[in-house]
## 1
Amino acid sequence: PTECFLSQPEEKQETTVKTKRRKKKKISDILEKCAPKPGVPADLQNLLSQHFGENRSVIEIEELKLSDSCFLPANDLTHSFSSYLKEICPKWAKLRKNHTEKKSVVMLVICSSALRSLELIKSMTAFKGDCRVLKLFAKHIKIKEQINMLEKGVFHIGVGTPGRVKALVEQDGLCLNSTKYMILDWNWRDQKLRRMMDIPEV
C-alpha cells in the first residue's frame, strides 16, 4: 500500500496595506454637530410628504397636508414642560372638567421611549393638577391592561410611544375623537443622539 502524506497548505503572506473604508455619515454624527432648535410646522409637514410621497397620488398627498393653522406655537426651548403646556392650553381646568368620555384622552403626548415618557409625566406635575394620566408604552405594561383601564376609567392625558399608541388605536382601545392636543417630543435625543423622527420605524 502507498503511504499518504498530508501536505501543509502554504502560508499566504499577509498584505500590510489595508484598504480604507469610507465612513458612512450617520444621523447621530450630523445631530452631534448641530444644537437643538425649536421645531416648526414645516418640519412635520416635510416629514409627512417625504414618508407618503412614494406610494400616494398627488390628490391623496394634498388631503394629508396639515395647514399651519393646525399647529400651536412650539416650545422655544426657554420653557419647562409644565410652563409650555400652561402657555398652549390656558383653559385646561375647564377642558379637564368637561371630559367624561372613556377610551379617550384630551391631551396625547408622544415621545420616543418609555423612560422618556416617565420623565415627562414627572415634569408635568405643576400643570396636570389632579387629572389622571395614563402611561401608553409597552415596557412592563400589557396592551390588554391598558385597554381595560381605558374602558373602565376617564383619563385626561396619555403619554406614550408611537408604537403602543398606534396599536391601541388599531385595536379600538383608544379613541381620538375627543383629543384636542397632540404634543410631539421633537427635540429630545436618545443615547445614539437620535430624535424620535430619526428612527425609521416611527
Note: The chain has a mean pLDDT of 86.
## 2
Amino acid sequence: CCRFTHPLMLGSGMHTTGIPHPAIVPHSGKQEMEHYDRNMKPQPEPKREKEAKKPTIKKPLNAFMLYMKEMRAKVIAECTLKESAAINQILGRRWHALSREEQAKYYELARKERQLHMQLYPGWSARDNY
C-alpha cells in the first residue's frame, strides 16, 4: 500500500539535512542476531550510583515574559477564558498595543534580570541545559 512520508524527509530515509534518520534507516540486524543466545536471559544493567543532578538554571526572562508574568492574573480576572493559549494571545495583542515608553519599563526590568543572572552565574550558557 502507500507509505506516509514526513514532508521533511527525502527518499531512502534521509532527512533534508542529508543525515539519515535513525527511525527510518534500514537496519540489517545481523550483528545483533550473532550475539543473541535464546537460552541467555537478559542481564539487568549494573545499578550506577545515583548521579547528583545539576540544578537547571533557566534563562533570564525577556521583556515580554516579564510583562506576561505581571499581567496574566489581570487578564484571567477580566476574561472568562481559562485556556492558556487564548490568554497568551490576548497578552501578545496587548503587548503590541503598548507604546514604546510603556514597553521600556519591561525592557529595563529584563536588562536588570540579565545583569543579575550574569552576576549569579558567570560563564553560564543556555547550552548547559541541553
Note: The first strand starts at residue 9 and ends at 10.
## 3
Amino acid sequence: GLRSIPSLSQFNRLKYLWLNNNKIQDLTFLIKNYCLTELYLNNNELTDISGALKHLCSLQILFLHNNELKELGKTVKELKGMISLHTLNLFQNPLACDPDYRLYVIYILPSVQLLDRKLVTQRERESAFHLYNPERSLLVQSIAFGKRVNTPLGAPLGSRRCIQPARRLIMPSVWKHSDNGRLLCSFCRVPFENPEDAILVRAMTRSLTEFSSVDWNKVATCQERRLQNKAEPLEKLTVQFR
C-alpha cells in the first residue's frame, strides 16, 4: 500500500529492487541508483515514467505491467538507452491497446528478448523493421551478394536466389555515311535505348568488387597483446574481381 518511497540514493550499489503491489505514482527516489539490474514496479499507479528511468543503463529486467501508462512513445523513449534490457513487461497498461504496440517496442528496443512474457521472434523483428523503416527494409531486400532479390524479407533462404535470366543488351542501331560512302556504326555516341543497359555496361567495365577475410583464431586478444608487449601483423586475404 506504499504511495511514496524515500530516496534510495544512499544505496548506490543496489542491484535488485522489488516494489510491486503498491500505489506508487512517482519514481524520483531512484535518481541515484545507477547499478540497478532488476526493477519490479508492476501493480502500481504509475501514469508517466519520463525522466525517471533513463539513467538506469544497466537495467536488464523491468516489470511495469498493470499500471496506468498511457503514452507509448514517451514510455519507450525513456527505455531506449537501456542496451542491456532483455526482459520487459508493459501489458495491462493503456498503451498496450495500440494496434502496433508490440512491433513498435521491438523496433525501438532491439535488445529486448522477452516482451510481455513472450519471446520476441525473428519474424517479429523483420516485420517491425519493415513497418518502421520501410526505405532501409526495401534496400536490404534488394541486395544480396551483388544480386537483386525480389522475394520478401521473411522468405526461406532457398528461395532468395536470383533466378532472373540473363538480359541481352539493347544497343541502338544508329548508322551514318562516311565521306567515301561506307556505312559506319555510331552507337558509341548515342545513349542506350534502355538506361539499365548503360548502368550494367558501366558496372561491368569500371566497378571493382573486393572481399577480405581474416582468420580471427590467429588474432591475439587484448590480454595476449598486453602480455606479449608486441603487435603481430594481421593476416588478411583479399580477393578483387570485376
Note: The first strand starts at residue 16 and ends at 18.
